[in-house]
Design goal:
By secondary structure, the chain is of the alpha+beta class. The chain has helices at about 1-10, 10-25, 45-50, 55-60, 60-70, 75-110, 120-125, 145-155, 210-215, 235-245, 255-265, 265-280, 285-295, 310-325, 340-345, 350-365, 365-370, 380-395, and strands spanning about 115, 135-140, 160, 180, 195-200, 220-225, 225-230. The chain has one domain. Helix 2 crosses helix 3 (about 45-50). It holds the Pfam family NTP_transf_5.
């Protein structure tokens, strides 16, 4: 592990800085003993990593501040990190209010909804609604209720960002698992809060193949902003976090931290999640997530989890170079070149049918293909147009306008 950090971290300074950033993100908030070759901390790099990896809330908590003060962090760095934590907390407060509003809108329309990640994860796993930095609201509904949920959000004033895709809400034959809605712009002209309406827990169903009736059953009720809000049961929530992180290639440290804090907060639920992973044949996905959280952030792995092997070593090898440096551009949204993404995800799957299903996903049309076609275009026509574009130009890098807003960071 230390040798891998030394290579991926661009030398001794990068290694020492990455180790400290991992400690700031960990629920343990402890720096491991210095390794041979560790050098001075690159404080500018540390601040850039905290921002781009979406962990300003964690880096600003009291335990992290004590850690930084003990290492003689410059005052300017402490002020910068404290400002980032305040901005993250204020952003989280606004998003919590919109979370309750969107959830109650769906509840009033008779739609059973489950709020995932976001404020719920911050409260449950982090123990504080201000610690987890996030930029949108994720709500999960059953596929057959997706059209009604989309209509309810639109009636409540949320504007769909892909209006042509509304007619495909909930359908299993498109590579579309969500619709995004924007609240009205802020008074200062900033973009309104983004609500993502999901009818599959992840884009690639093979990474979380549980039937939706199972996923929606036995919800946990959490008090959020003075209201009772439903989320997934504890074991499903942890398994979902691992699949979500895997679907983004664990590109951001925030997603590894989600898993680490969830494992630390509820070890029994983590063991139950392992049982579910075995039942639904996604031990590769869950195990890779848990072993990353253990190797980088120091939390114990769930009892009974198979020891890391070649697959986990491969995940660490392709993930670590992204986690030990600041992210730039589309990387900050979890984007990877699609062919690399396909190759990395194939290595997580345990059986041939799942691999074929994953390949089929990449050939199916998605939101940008639907929006590029005519409003009444058939699914076959949209699919053929997509295959033609892939043959001529290959996968496209996402445009800035099609990306979710960046995580809230302090000004300056």
């Amino acid at each position: 592990m230390r040798e891998a950090l030394a290579v991926a971290g661009d030398g001794a300074n990068g290694t020492a800085t990455a180790r400290l950033v991992f400690a700031l993100a960990s629920p343990l908030a402890q720096v491991p003993p210095p390794a041979n070759g560790d050098a001075a901390i690159d404080w500018g790099r540390l601040v850039a990593m905290v921002r781009s990896h979406g962990i300003p809330g964690l880096a600003g908590r009291p335990a992290a501040r004590r850690l930084l003060t003990g290492l003689a962090a410059p005052d300017a760095v402490l002020r910068d990190l404290s400002g980032g934590a305040r901005a993250s907390a204020l952003g989280g407060l606004k998003l919590t209010q919109h979370t309750v509003r969107a959830y109650q809108t769906l509840e009033a329309a008779g739609v059973a909804a489950r709020v995932v990640k976001g404020a719920m994860e911050s409260l449950i796993s982090y123990g504080d609604a201000a610690l987890r930095t996030y930029s949108d609201i994720d709500i999960l509904v059953a596929p057959d209720q997706a059209p009604a949920a989309a209509a309810a959000l639109a009636d409540a004033g949320y504007t769909p960002e892909a209006p042509k895709a509304l007619r495909f809400a909930g359908r299993p034959d498109v590579a579309l698992s969500q619709l995004r809605f924007s609240a009205a712009p802020e008074a200062d002209g900033k973009r309104g809060v983004l609500v993502e309406l999901h009818w599959r827990p992840t884009d690639r169903a093979v990474l979380f193949p549980l039937p939706m009736d199972h996923v929606m059953a036995r919800p946990a009720q959490i008090s959020l902003g003075g209201a009772a809000v439903a989320t997934l049961s504890p074991a499903l929530r942890i398994l979902h976090l691992s699949s979500h992180a895997a679907s983004h290639g664990w590109t951001k440290l925030k997603w590894v931290a989600d898993i680490a804090h969830a494992l630390h907060a509820d070890p029994a639920a983590a063991e139950e999640a392992l049982d579910l992973a075995r039942r639904w044949r996604v031990v590769g996905v869950y195990g890779a997530s848990c072993h990353l959280a253990t190797a980088l952030l120091g939390v114990p792995a769930p009892r009974g989890l198979p020891a890391p092997g070649r697959r986990e070593a491969a995940v660490l090898a392709h993930t670590l170079p992204r986690l030990v440096r600041p992210l730039v551009g589309a990387e900050r949204r979890g984007w990877r070149p699609p062919l690399r993404q396909l190759r990395e995800e194939m290595g997580l799957l345990d059986h041939l049918p799942a691999k074929l299903q994953l390949l089929r996903y990449y050939l199916r049309p998605r939101t940008e293909d639907i929006e590029a076609g005519a409003g009444d275009a058939s699914l076959l026509r949209i699919t053929l147009a997509r295959l033609g574009r892939l043959a001529l130009r290959g996968p496209r890098r996402p445009e800035a306008g099609n990306l979710p807003p960046p995580a809230i960071t302090p000004p300056g």
